Amino acid sequence: MLASIRVLSAVFFLVIAITIAISNEKYPEFPLKSTAAHESSTGAPGELTCAQSGCHETSEIQRDDTTNILLFSDADSTYGDSMEGITLRVRRKDCKKFGFQIVCLDTLMKNVGSWVLLNKERVQMQLADFSVPGATGRKYLTHTYKGTIPQSTGEIFWEFSWLPPLNGYKGAVTFYVMTNCTNNDNTNSGDALYASKHTLRHQSSATSLTEEIKHQIISFQTTQGTWSLPLPINERMKSLEICDLSGKHLSCTWESKGQSEIEITLENQRYHGLVMIKMSMESGLMLKKAVFFHD
Questions:
Q1: Global pTM?
Q2: What share of the chain is helix, strand, coil (3-state, %, to 5)?
């Protein structure tokens, strides 16, 4: 009996050693911990965070929806009955390697809709942690080995799609995101975790979708690369980001002009086209479509 136990133990550790060896040979630049996020660690209601699940217990969670930028194909804070294209973009200048996990929940905190993979080399599906009762039935997306490599210095993006529910649900849906910006020192310390959530409501709940979209599209006409943007009265803006529809960040500077207007100067003064403007206001976030054009 004792001999059998020793044999089984030897076999177990041999399998572990072979697994590590194969992993290191196939992906020598990554340790095993980079295969995916820990299950059910987005920080959504009823589940853990990466800091609580043991993989990054010394890291502090930062609630930040400016580091995590979630771009939707419709870009109007609503969803319909067709598939929604999504780009998750994360930027941090001193980051060597990134990771993420995302889940979509309805108003009852139940999984809603389904994921569609566009690039299986960088993104993979993931089930819930069975030891976390509040996460039962939830389905996630997370990074792969290759999906931790930034496309450019200090910046990464993942692309995937979300299919709205087919059971007739027309309520609000919220995407809970947890990202990890690491120093790539092969330890679970010294890393930064960013949590954010992004809510969409069904088009049928909008009083007038046409009027809503019309209200969000603002045309700018200017000279010398400076654009004028009206602001709601008595609102103060803290930060501003501009992306094109592919999710590419457009470098710019901005300056307040009175209490109801700002001026934006793009680095590329000849840029024209449709963009998404993300403004962080004292009262919360504001997203707007805008058309930049020249005389």
A1: 0.60
A2: 15, 45, 40
